[in-house]
Specification:
- The protein is of the alpha/beta class and 251 residues long.
- The protein has 7 helices and 10 strands.
- Helix 1 packs across helix 4.
- The radius of gyration is 18 Å and the shape is globular.
- 44% of the residues are buried.
Length: 251
Amino acid sequence: MTFYEICFSPTGGTKAAADILTRDLSSESSFVDLTDYTLNDISLTKEDTAVIAVPSYGGRIPATAVQRMGKISGNGAKAILVCIYGNRAYEDTLIELQDVAEQAGFQVIAAVAAIAEHSIARQFAAGRPDVSDREKLCSFAEQIRKKLASGNTDTPSIPGNRPYKKAGGSGIVPKPSKNCVNCGLCAEKCPVQAIDKNNPADTDPKRCISCMRCVSICPYSARKVNRIMLAGVNKMLKKTCSERKNCELYL
């Protein structure tokens, strides 16, 4: 039996939360990076278990993560779903992830919604997952472990709507500042290859998914979001994101 952590985490927040759960569930795991555009086909077995973690983008799974899940064959492996959101709402993300996982051949036995720092408006849920989140996730892991040990593979009731809410992009495309030295790291690591490798100043707005990976990994802090657009996002999210949300378990 192999334990897998299958994760789409452009800025690291989703992986940070998924890591806590995964490490408490298994001492060893194999990591599958859904942000890697060179991802090859992967096949699991019925004896395997996987934590499948994605961020919520406007209450939905990023389309890129959905596409890359198509490269994975679950073959009856058990799945613990993890949805990470920036303290606003995850809406239809978990129910969509359930459908995507089941279509890939996984048997869903648990689902978790957890919070991490908002990838665009980073003052919301800053520092999360924090100590309290870690305690909660470790407690969830113990409950999930007991369910696995009991042989119970029932699928829990997971919140969300079918049909899902309409997906919408933020339309926020980071641009390089004068600090850019054309090192090319942003282009190399872009999950959707939206940045020109020969000219990092050129970003394809049709490809860009506003994941903010280029902003988070730039060693020169040279990728920026338009200040006016960022101010608008902050104002829009202030009311809904200011009150602390807590992690949730569906077992």
